[in-house]
Amino acid sequence: MTVSKRRRTDTMSVTSGRSFIGDTPTLTGVGEKGSRGVASVAIILFKTITGAGALAMPRAMHDSGVVSFSLMVTGVGLCSHYGCLLLARSLDMVAKDDIDIATLGHHCMGKAGFTMAMVVCFLDSWGGAVAALRMIAELVSPMLKEPDIFGHDSSFAQEWFVILIHAIVIFPMMLYRDITQLGWINTLGIIAMMVFAGTIVVKAILSGNNLEGRALFEWDNTAIMSIPVIAFSYDCQVNMFGSYRDISGKPGEKAGRLNTASMIANGVASVCYIIIALSGYVTYLDSTSNDVLGNLPSTLDAVKIMFALSVLFSFPVVLLECSTIVQEHVIRPLLVPRSGEGSEDEESFDEDDEPPYAQLVNIFTNLFIISSAATVAAFVPSMYAAFAYVGASTATINTAVIPPLYYLMTIRKQYPGFSILRTHPDGFGVFQGASAVQEEEEGPLLSEEEGKSFRIVAAPPNQWLQRCAAVYLICGSVAMPFLVYVTAVSS
After folding, report:
1. Is residue 445 pLDDT above 70, yes or no?
2. Which helix (H) or strand (E) holds 458?
């Protein structure tokens, strides 16, 4: 959106038609622009939300109580949706659909915003890999310890060995860059989730148990730890950039449709999580484990294997973001000379530049990512703790810090002099400087001062939404260290 006759241009070009690591597009270059409807985008976001985190929901309900858990899921779901809405509004103001979160950060906050997004997204993706490896180990190791397989004391059945083997299997898959051909992974994940949810619900019906005499509301450290576990599951905000690009509509006019898709995805996911949690808790009561699949008998090992495989095969997609951040935004600037155009703050590169040793960089980057994730996963006490740490730190930042911060800073960038504290009779904010608009631009006349006309070029963002975003940013900034502290004390 333009606020003067001066043309605004992005100074950071981090996505191009050809990826640094091969001939396939990067995450923001997949598919046709504007080709998806609201329902299609909602399904993709729903699949992003409902993943391995569902395994920990019954335990979270056990620790916090049915009422507390339901309120937590509802609250986190609303926060997740609000974060998605703020990012969509930010992209509408920028009116571009070919940027990622790091580029938006650079646009509104310069290098500080770019670095913040890059570091948080890397750690978030990497932390998710640690949690996934831990989950696979907790699923597979007990099956291998059966007497008719390896036995309890065999090294081949230990969790660290399971993590090592899976890391070795995952590594060559991570080098596969043509993610446009990996759509079957989403299909496998949806099937595995449906089989898992159906199994848990049927088990609950057949168990004949009830929750009579059980606490409905708990609020100690163990119960509070359920919040970051839930937040881990709703960590979908980074995916909004691809969704904004894919959803139909013109750049600058997509926030409304994306808001609807996010509302559907987060709402349906919240209902599913409550059903899964209640079913698992009713079935196993005090025996509910951190990973509810661990409660299933050996006769249902096929369900465990299907779920583990769906997580395993999702690694190329999940870790592509982590790998791309390192290669595009850290290594590429070191290996590819700048084009020489623009200011010193610009990081533009020629699209046809092929960094030297690109394949070696790809190999060693992914080797570092998977080996470090596997090492940490071997020492994390449990899958539940891994979910909680990621949820308390990077997931909370992605949900409740980055979206309101970038939204407010984008307003400041796009509407210089705009105040959220003073209100014009028409309901718009008040511009406080001539730099905000030009005299010859169209718009309602605000005032005349020293011969200069102040006019609104386009309706600025809703002021109440901005004020809510400011409060949300403060709450998120306070909640993150508090949740990390509670997780450290409780795990």
Report:
1. no
2. none
